[in-house]
Amino acid sequence: MQLPHLAATWILAAAASAQDWPTWRGPNHDGSTEATGLPTDFDKEKHVAWAVDLPGPAASTPIVVGERVYLTSIEEEAGALLALCVDVESGEVLWERNAGSGYRAGGAGTPVRLHDRSNYASPSPVSDGERVVFFFGNGDLVCFTPDGERVWARNMQKDYGDFAFQWTFSASPTLWEGRLYLQVLQRNEPVHDVGEPESPSFLLALDPRSGDELFRHLRPSDARVESLESYATPIPYVGASGRKELLVAGGDVITGHDPKTGEELWRWGTWNPGHREIWWRLVPSAVTGAGVVLVCAPKTAPVFAVRLDGSGELGEAGLAWKSDGRPNRVSSDVPTPLYYEGRFYVLSDVRESLARIVPETGAIDWVIDMPGKKLWRASPTGADGKVWCMNHGGDVVVVDAENGKIVNQIAMGEEDDDGTRSTIAIAHGRLFIRTNSKLFCVGRGGA
């Protein structure tokens, strides 16, 4: 007699999980979700269910799992790195924890930042529903229960050597099929007197229940100086044959790895022939769609589409296409592209444009100029037939995904805001918009 009830409960749980935004790039690891019915005519009050004042700015994206929103922040005066949990329905802050150890490599910077361009609350948290893991740019990796009980904590710099990065390390961890992954692709020499001689780059897997290491796979590269550095996140991929991979971009190449061992399955590159450019750190993560993986070369260089499901050194045959044009408007130095409803969407901070691309050929369906004078460095989100973008000033632009027409432009930041880089998260029929000072929940339940 209980079976129908149990089946219904399981179906409801699965449906709720499908509506979550559990990682930086959402439930599909590509910036998209199937949410519908989202308002486009909102502002700081209209259609706002709630807004929460935040302790400080951060580039991290909030994640949403079940009835909870998780995000990171800083408290500058106290020198604290914070993990926060907010109730989805009411906006009540359920718990706030000081998650930082105060560790500073070589004594550099302050407890919350290495330099003025960003702070350590730049990586986004990740959750599987049973636990939530927070990572910070100083190497602190902390796991909590959904109710805020600390389960374990480690510092990656203490355990594996000080990071060797020009800028604040901001890769977000990936939690996939019972394993926690983090890529550390860094310079092989100290920078700003921080780091180790011959610092290795590696892909790390941990047990999310305990924080114990499962494997640490070295990931070599012929890149030089800053071009060795990557701020990207490992992206899961399941191939046509069912083969599972982790896609790791950086060090002038992209590689596919066995998620159980870290073994390198294939490699393609480079977008930096002869490794001539030594200042080409990589920021955007990879994104997959229609049998290819998109990787954005730095600065104003092209976007490259590499064929998936290969083995070994792919060589020239592994490249499906690359963007071109004079000037090249399909390029991204910072934002990670979106894959949504059969198309790639490349938001360019260097060209101030948004382009819709055919994955199989690289053909451009349309390209538009992005409005305003502030930089567009937050990654785009796809849902409800729209592409949702936000610039450094906290201005949200809603674009029709089909024709590229701008549906609305909404100022969600303060008048003098700059440096807003959090991606818009969409879950349970609502938009979660993080500015420098507030977290807005827009949508169902809004006034």
* Sequence stretches where pLDDT stays below 50 over 5 or more residues: 1-16
Name the CATH architecture of the domain at 1-58 and 372-420 and 422-447: Beta Barrel
Q: Report the portion of residues in β strands.
A: 35-45%
Assigned CATH class of the domain at 1-58 and 372-420 and 422-447: Mainly Beta
Count the strands? Answer: 33
Our count of helices gives: 2
Q: How would you characterize the largest beta sheet?
A: 5 strands, mixed
- Overall pLDDT level: 93
Helix fraction, binned, reads: under 10%
* CATH fold group of the domain at 1-58 and 372-420 and 422-447: Thrombin, subunit H
- In spatial order, strands of the major sheet run 14-15-16-17-21
Q: Specify the overall morphology.
A: globular
Cα(first) to Cα(last) distance is: 42 Å
Rg, Cα atoms, Å: 21 Å
Structural class: mainly beta
Brief sketch in words of this structure:
This protein is mainly beta and 447 residues long. The protein has helices spanning 3-18, 156-160; strands spanning 48-53, 63-65, 68-75, 80-87, 93-98, 126-127, 132-135, 140-144, 150-155, 174-176, 179-184, 202-206, 213-218, 235-238, 244-250, 253-257, 264-268, 287-289, 292-296, 303-307, 312-313, 319-322, 338-340, 343-348, 353-357, 364-369, 381-383, 386-390, 395-400, 406-411, 425-427, 430-434, 438-443.
